[in-house]
Amino acid sequence: MAGKGAQLIQLDVDTEKGGLTLNPNFLVDFGAEPDGPVLCHEMRFPGGDCTSDIWM
């Protein structure tokens, strides 16, 4: 529901055994922004390049 904003979560990848696990210690709630709920888009890691872009 876009009217309530977006959330960014972290999924940890187990490269040895396979599978994904939700990281319970990481959550960014864009719905709680001071200027109202917002959507996340075109997120980039600091110092990243095109290989680290995340499009949402």
Instruction: Evaluate the radius of gyration.
Output: 14 Å
Mean pLDDT score: 80
Uncertain stretches of 5 or more adjacent residues: none
- Tally of separate domains: 1
Sum up the overall morphology in one term.
extended
Our count of helices gives 0
Class of secondary structure makeup? mainly beta
Q: Per DSSP, what share of the residues sits in E-state strands of 2 or more residues?
A: 25-35%
Q: Share of helix among residues?
A: under 10%
SSE pattern, N- to C-terminal: EE
Please summarize the sheet with the most strands. 2 strands, antiparallel
Give the end-to-end Cα distance, rounded to a whole number of Å. Answer: 14 Å
**Which strands sit side by side, in order, in the main sheet?**
1-2
Pfam families: SBP56
GO molecular function: selenium binding
Keywords: Selenium
InterPro entries: Se-bd (IPR008826)
